[in-house]
């Protein structure tokens, strides 16, 4: 009887230990899974952020070399939302490596919607020249549209609400006599000082 009782007690201890180990393993697995998801998400966000920065730098280089005359026809407004609503934005540029056209560029290897920039003019008062504002977006993921459908509408990726993106806003001094000026007023003038947020 004593031998059976001691064997039963040992079996109970073994079962309790197995249950505790199972709980610990489940906790570690769930933490590892969460960390994996978080690391993948942060990698995507890091790529999107780098692409937004590069898009902003690219647009700044273009505007410093040759400010586009077409921007001067835009109506200056107080904010980007109003400019979008009234279609007072311009000079939209983007690179979209969609899955249909670029099947070999898997998202894990950096494929997908890369970047988009859009410009508008910010009103600073009746006697002050407006700022040229560049909205630069970087993406990680794919737009889910089939060409010739537009992959972006006002730099919002179409067809994929879960795409990871990063956004940078740059404020540029609009060149004096913009649209018809080089240094001191002729064609091809670039922008002056730059700010950002």
Please render the helix and strand layout as text:
Elements: H1 2-65, H2 80-85, E1 90-97, E2 112-122, E3 131-140, E4 152-153, E5 156-157, E6 164-173, E7 194-196
Antiparallel strand pairs: 1-2, 2-3, 3-6, 4-5, 6-7
Structure overview:
- The structure is a single chain.
- The protein is α+β, with helices and mostly antiparallel strands and 197 residues long.
- The protein has one domain (47-196).
- It has helices spanning 2-65, 80-85; strands at 90-97, 112-122, 131-140, 152-153, 156-157, 164-173, 194-196.
- Strand 2 (112-122) and strand 3 (131-140) form a beta hairpin.
- Helix content is 36%, strand content 23%.
User: How many structural domains does the protein architecture include?
Assistant: 1
Largest beta-sheet details: 5 strands, antiparallel
- Overall 3D form: elongated
Order of helices and strands: HHEEEEEEE
- The assigned structural class equals alpha+beta
Regions with little confidence, pLDDT below 50 for 5+ residues: 179-188
Compute the number of strand runs.
7
* Cα radius of gyration in angstroms: 27 Å
- Distance from N terminus to C terminus (CA atoms, Å) equals 79 Å
